[in-house]
Amino acid sequence: MTFDLTLLAPYLGDLAAGARLTALACAFALAGGLLLGVMAALMRTAASPVARRIADVYVDIFRNVPFIVQLFFLFYGLPEIGIEMSAFCTGVLALSLAGGAFTSDVIRSGILAVEPGVLEAAQVSGLSRLAIYRRIVLPIALRSSVRPLGAVFVNLILTSSILSAVTLNELTGSARIVAADTFQPFEVYALLLVLYAAMTWLVSLSAGVLHRRLNREHG
């Protein structure tokens, strides 16, 4: 067996397009997951037992059910009740829901880590509960959560490889097509390993740099 990456040269454009689609889907999912995670974390730390229960049910479902089952339900199940979405929108929604469940744990830990004295001082100053969370609690929680949120984003990138199961030709889907066309699966999937490793390393590095910068500025 010979290892010849030059055979893949005509297909680099297809792989690059798949990588861009993966990056775009993960970027949207990161934003959606962060929004859902913050909302769920606030509900899980709220005084209302109803709000806490609703958030706990959401987190339990999307954290404990296999992602591919969630994906198939959204892509194949929802059309049966009249809700249809493109493969890309379905993938982003599925990643956002799953990512939000894990993000809520991270944000919740950050909220609970805020020192009681800080909250007491804010209450004494006359700030409303909404203002305290918006101006004090969430900034502190998010700043302390950068590294674990980076790990969540890395997991989103890895999980996005399953989106090819619903006909979305992201990076893994594109690689599968190239492997079938070239009959060179070893070279194709070796390159795929390198690309995923590079993307996840870049995210981890960026999260580390951002964490150090934020904590240096507020240290």
UniProtKB/TrEMBL annotation:
<keyword id="KW-1003">Cell membrane</keyword>
<keyword id="KW-0813">Transport</keyword>
<feature type="transmembrane region" description="Helical">
    <location>
        <begin position="55"/>
        <end position="75"/>
    </location>
</feature>
<dbReference type="GO" id="GO:0043190">
    <property type="term" value="C:ATP-binding cassette (ABC) transporter complex"/>
</dbReference>
<keyword id="KW-0029">Amino-acid transport</keyword>
<feature type="domain" description="ABC transmembrane type-1">
    <location>
        <begin position="15"/>
        <end position="204"/>
    </location>
</feature>
<keyword id="KW-0812">Transmembrane</keyword>
<comment type="similarity">
    <text>Belongs to the binding-protein-dependent transport system permease family. HisMQ subfamily.</text>
</comment>
<dbReference type="Pfam" id="PF00528">
    <property type="entry name" value="BPD_transp_1"/>
</dbReference>
<keyword id="KW-0472">Membrane</keyword>
<feature type="transmembrane region" description="Helical">
    <location>
        <begin position="81"/>
        <end position="102"/>
    </location>
</feature>
<dbReference type="InterPro" id="IPR000515">
    <property type="entry name" value="MetI-like"/>
</dbReference>
<protein>
    <submittedName>
        <fullName>ABC transporter permease subunit</fullName>
    </submittedName>
</protein>
<feature type="transmembrane region" description="Helical">
    <location>
        <begin position="20"/>
        <end position="43"/>
    </location>
</feature>
<comment type="function">
    <text>Part of the binding-protein-dependent transport system for glutamine; probably responsible for the translocation of the substrate across the membrane.</text>
</comment>
<dbReference type="GO" id="GO:0006865">
    <property type="term" value="P:amino acid transport"/>
</dbReference>
<dbReference type="InterPro" id="IPR043429">
    <property type="entry name" value="ArtM/GltK/GlnP/TcyL/YhdX-like"/>
</dbReference>
<dbReference type="InterPro" id="IPR010065">
    <property type="entry name" value="AA_ABC_transptr_permease_3TM"/>
</dbReference>
<feature type="transmembrane region" description="Helical">
    <location>
        <begin position="188"/>
        <end position="210"/>
    </location>
</feature>
<feature type="transmembrane region" description="Helical">
    <location>
        <begin position="149"/>
        <end position="168"/>
    </location>
</feature>
<keyword id="KW-1133">Transmembrane helix</keyword>
<dbReference type="InterPro" id="IPR035906">
    <property type="entry name" value="MetI-like_sf"/>
</dbReference>
<dbReference type="GO" id="GO:0022857">
    <property type="term" value="F:transmembrane transporter activity"/>
</dbReference>
